[in-house]
Amino acid sequence: MLILKSRQELTDFVQSIRAKRLTIGFVPTMGALHEGHLFLIKKAIEENQYTLCSIFVNPTQFNNSADLEKYPRTEETDIKKLESAGCDAVYLPKVEDMYPSGFENDPIDLGGLDSVMEGAFRPGHFQGMATVVKRLLLQTQPTKAYFGEKDFQQLQIIRQMVRNEKLPVEIIGVPIVREESGLAMSSRNMRLSPEFKERSVFIYHTLLKAKELSSQLSPQQIISEVEKIYSNSDFKLEYFTIAEEKTLQTHDKFEENSRYRAFVAAFAGEIRLIDNIQIR
Ligand code: PAF
Questions:
Q1: What is the mean pLDDT of the chain?
Q2: Average pLDDT rounded to a whole number, residues 172-185
Q3: Residue ranges making up the domain that contains 230
Q4: How much is the pTM?
Q5: 111 inside domain
Q6: Catalytic choice (37, 125, 205, 251)
């Protein structure tokens, strides 16, 4: 596997592939790779002639500096995992490759999709994320780029940005990979205490409960029921909501021809976890 340590090395790699008219599948990550990331790599390998991954912990998408500091950094193990998964190249940009003129976000219109859920609780997060993803897509020029549905709001925002900015790439959303228990795989899981690691499947169970209730109750009634379950637990709920997939807006009632997801953010001890499932 090629290890590309600068923007110039990346550009040479991309140009050599593009010159042969071969396809590139791109998987951007912030490292601390787990089975969920490796599933994205697997999809990219299946659908493209070359697979490129990037590892860059993007400072502008952290609205809390302690969170940025504590974000797990496991570069050596990540590289080994990518190699065993059959990835062709990994791009490890330096801060100056992504932010040559300081930490300023690009003015990207996210169409309001960034004002709800994660956007409401993590101000500036999506502008920072969109900025780095746009820059990565421009630098890597992939045919297809792969993102997990665990960050479903992020996925929809990236789709919107790619449409608005007319970037020539196909965005592929990939289903969530879960632990055997049902807990959604996340780089943050490695920071959970063993006790919370075992019990955090609770969050997935509340999503399944919402799905079960969706045949009888309205979105708001389901939200109230699930909030009650959280208030009797030691998981601190930040939000639990039900939104239409494309607009990410909540509706008073389920419309026949729309798809809905339940979304949750909750604290397991100190660690903030998010998850979602399609409920209708
Ligand atoms: O989902 C992530 O890991 C990050 O938000 C991404 C897409 C790599 C941008 O930094």
A1: 97
A2: 97
A3: 187-275
A4: 0.97
A5: yes
A6: 37
